[in-house]
Structure formats: structure tokens, C-alpha cells
Amino acid sequence: MEKTEVREGKVPALPDLFDWAEDGVRIRSAKCNSCGTYFFPEYHAQHRPGCSREGVEKVLLNNKGKLASYTVQHYMCPPPFKTSGNITPYGIGLVEFPEGIQIAGLIMESNLDALKIGQSVETITYTLYRNDEGQDVVTWAFRVLN
Amino acid sequence: MREISIVGAGLHPWGKFKDKTFIEIGTVAIENALKDGHIEWKDIQAIFSGIYIYGGNAGHLSGQYLESVFGETGVPVVNVYNACATGSAALRMAYNSIAAGEVDTALAVGVDISPEGFLSAKSDNPRQDRDVLRWRMSGMPNPVYWALECRKRMAKYGTTDEDLARVKVVLSQYGAKNPNARYKKVYTLEEVLNSLMVCDPLRLYELCATSDGAAAVILSASPGTIAKADKPVKIAATTMGSAIYGDPTIRISALSAPAKAEAPLLSESYSASRQAYEKSGIGPDDIDVLELPDNSSWHYLQYLETCGFCGEGEADRMLREGQTQIGGKLAVCPSGGFSSFGEAIGAQAVWQVVEASNQLRGRCGERQVPNARIAMTQTYGLMGNSGTTIMKV
């Protein structure tokens, strides 16, 4: 798998966590072919006890999942979280992917009151701020599918 | 196995003490524990001290700094860190050191002066510190994790906003009567429900603050030392647990968790409590007093289930029926809990043991649990680590 690249003037705030694929943004994960465990990020290995830990491969998670839980923050997160403006209130979603792993991240939704467990969501990028080179510094985020 | 007792217990009250050092408040706690047990400093044969992570090199060597205040004696001094279960680790090592016959009397101490506001990332290397990722990429302070699990619970078991608020109402009544508590105001259900929504579904008064505090416990198996103590409390078991593979809890600092549960929620606390039940031969039905880690109202409910005091989804009913109050089936956090004290990372596990042992020693005045014979303390530490202590008189 290639290193995460800059795409259309967008640069990830930290590398190797997601990628731009043909069908959209996908979380970078890793799967152990011996014990079947998926882990995230790909460099924080996790295995079933007793696993030989052989045959770990990097994978891209499906672009779509289900909202397993969510919370809305009514305060601005202090540093090292950095955004160009105050994004309060902001949502955090916990998304279950078909591979059998839940991933947490910002949830971008104009109407946070409409969030519901079980909703279909897709992975997107969200611009946190613009850097000195004029690039959008982005993270992964989730958006509800209608 | 040697019979090991708590012979001395001491605190520095919880609060915010900007002008004090961790050494100063730690000294007060140790001095109070020594006085409580009528113990001389020279009788302390080993020291297990919680690492104070915001204190730099001094904080990492907290035991040596505290020892020097009372006079260096050459005894083993070990500094330990297990996040919010740090005190559990210190206590367990003191216990095991005595149980192994290495020493007869040992000190376990925990001290913390918390930074203001949310506890944040302490390094800047995302490849080895998930804290960096969760802060920079997703803006996730600790309460986010609790809110995500709380929301799941509400959907699964029908926990209501009133249930979450009721936890604070009950605990605030005890905190008001505890001279060592930081928060002493009694709240009504309406006041809690009208408090600021912070981390939906958790409101301001349903989340614990970060505090400063210090706690010390002296353990002994020496008959002479035990004889001098005012109502010694026997340790029935003190254990630690780590998480179990397949635990679906979204654990603080992580950004992922298994979707399919192959282990219980909060499996680290499940592990620690089950080890303690097995070692002590004491089960949830035998316990009169429980100090659990009420970091949020969600924890209060979930821990009753995790530790086996009721079945899954039954904690709300226990709370509504008053079973968890003083005079009920199980007195939960008669100290006032973290709700009235706030978290003091390195100190809180030892503090819980001090509070629980005070109940067994009949020292709690207006919030005394009648006929308290057996007490349990349970901690909850970041990254899947936890400790349980069961004590009896």
C-alpha cells in the first residue's frame, strides 16, 4: 500500500490513517490472517492470545458502515486538537464497519439532533484548518447517508 | 498465607491546591496514616508510591521524595504507574511484599495535583502514543468515551436522563457530609437535569472533575503493630486485572474496538473483581459497602453490572429502588464518590481504600453504613487496567 498522499490540495493531519480510494475515503486498517483481528491504526498491532502473528496485511476498510453510537460535544476541545474556528457543538460517532471493527471519529452533520444509532454513514474527510502552504489539513470523519 | 491488615489510613483532603506541592500534600497523608496506626516511621519497611505524572522527574520518583521528608531509611522504595489504577498497583505490591514474607509492614501512597481542565496528551509521537491521535484527529477528551458507551446503554437498556441525574443526587448527599470531599453541595434532580450539557448525553454534574489529593495506607502482618491499631481492617484480597481480547468497550485513548463482543464490557474490571472474589471467597452478595469509580453516571450504573452486583441492564432499577443507598442492599460510594471528590489519578485508588476502611471502622458519622462488615473498592484505569480490593472486619 502506498503512503497516504496529498490529494487535491488536502493533506492528512497525521499520516497513514486513511486513504482516498476510487469509491471514497477509506480508513487504513490492518488484518492478521492468522487470528482474524482487524486493528487500527495499522501500526498498533493487536492479536488474539496465542496467535502466531504471521501474515498481517494492510487493508482499507469499507467506505460505509453503521452508526453504533454517538455523542455531541458542547465545548471546544482544547489543544492539541486544532481547527480553524470554533466548531461547537461537534459530533463524535462510533461506526461499525462490515469487517467487524468499530472506529471513532468526528461526525459531520448539520442537524446533530437527528443522529440515531443504526444510521448508515460513510467515511469522508474534514478540513481542520489550512496550513501555511495553503493546503487543507484534514482528518477522517463520518457523514450520515440519506 | 499471612493475614495482612490495614493498620493506618490517612488523607489530605481533596480540592485544588495550586500553591501546594505533591510532596506537601503527600506528607500530610502519610503523617495522618502513621498517627492513625500509632506507627513510627522507622517501622515502615517498604514504600510503594504512585507515580505523579505531572511532576517531572520528581513525580516519577515520588516515593523517594516523600521518604526523604520523613527521613531516608534505606528501605525498598518502588514507584508504580497504572493510570487511574495506580494506587491499586501500589497497594497490591505492598500486600504481596508482606505476603511473601519479605517485610512485615509496608506503606502504599498515592498523590496527585491535576492540571486544570481536561487531561491531555503527554507526548507528540502518534506512532507510539494513541493519545496524540485521539486528540489531534478526533477531538476526543475522556468524557467522549464515557458518553459513547452511555448512549449505547440508553438504547439497549432504557437508561434515562433521570437515572443519570439521580446518581449525582444520591452521591451529593454523602459528599455534603464528608469533611474530606471537594464538593459539598446537595443537588436536586432538577438542578442536575438543568446543568450544562457537556458531552451529550452526559451533563456537567454527571461527570467528575479533576482534583488534587493524597492518600496513604499502612499494611502490616506484625502482631505487635496490629495490636496497636485502632480497629485493624483485614485485606481479604487485592488484585489487578487487564483487558480481555474481544472486549467491545471503546477504551480511553483507543480509536477502535471490536464490533462483536467476545468478552465483557470493561473486561479489565471484570477480571480484577472476579480474581478478588475467587481469592477471598467473598462474593457480591456478601459486600456491604462498595466504592466504585464513578467517573460519570454511566460508570456508576455499568460498574454495578460489571462487578456482578446485578445482572446486565438491572443497575438502573437498583438505583431507582434505593438499593444502592445507605440503608439499602448495598451502600454504593458512601464517601460521595468521585462525584464529590473528583479524580486525583495517582491517589484515588488508595483514597477509596481509606474511605471503605473508615466505614468498616465505624468512623463515618452521619453517612455511616449500619453494620458494615465487608467492603470492596474498584478502580478503572485508562488503557484497560483495573484493581479490586476486598476488606473485612
Protein traits:
A: 146 residues; mainly beta; five-stranded mixed β-barrel; 10 strands; B: Peroxisomal Thiolase, Chain A, domain 1; two-stranded antiparallel ribbon; 14 helices; 19% strand; globular
Describe this structure in words.
The complex is a heterodimer of chains A (146) and B (393). Chain A has strands at residues 10-12, 18-21, 24-32, 38-39, 56-60, 64-73, 90-97, 101-107, 120-130, 136-144. With 146 residues, chain A is mainly beta. Chain A has one domain. Chain B starts with a strand and ends with a strand. Chain B has two domains: 5-116 and 212-234, Thiolase/Chalcone synthase (Peroxisomal Thiolase, Chain A, domain 1), CATH 3.40.47.10; 142-207 and 236-392, Peroxisomal Thiolase, Chain A, domain 1. Chain B has helices spanning 22-37, 56-60, 62-70, 86-99, 130-138, 142-157, 161-175, 189-193, 223-228, 267-280, 297-306, 315-320, 337-341, 348-360, and strands at residues 5-15, 47-50, 77-80, 105-113, 197-200, 202-203, 212-220, 233-242, 256-258, 289-291, 331-332, 374-378, 385-392. Chain B has a ten-stranded mixed β-sheet with strand order 3-2-4-7-1-8-13-12-10-11, with helices on both faces. With 393 residues, chain B is an alpha/beta fold. Chain A binds chain B through residues 13-14, 17, 29, 38-41, 43-44, 48-49, 68-75, 77-83, 89-90, 92, 94, 96-97, 100-106, 117, 139-140, and chain B through 117-118, 120-121, 124, 126-127, 130, 132-141, 144, 147-152, 155, 196-202, 245-246, 248, 250, 255-260. Strand 6 of chain A pairs antiparallel with strand 5 (197-200) of chain B.
Q: Please tell me the overall pLDDT of chain B.
A: 97
Q: Count structural domains of chain A.
A: 1
Beta content of chain A: over 45%
* Binned strand content of chain B: 15-25%
- The whole-angstrom Rg of chain B is 20 Å
Report the end-to-end length of chain A measured between terminal Cα atoms.
31 Å
Please, what is the oligomeric state? heterodimer
List low-pLDDT spans of chain B.
none
For the largest beta-sheet of chain A, the strand count, sense and barrel status come to:
5 strands, mixed, barrel
- What summary fits the major beta sheet of chain B? 10 strands, mixed
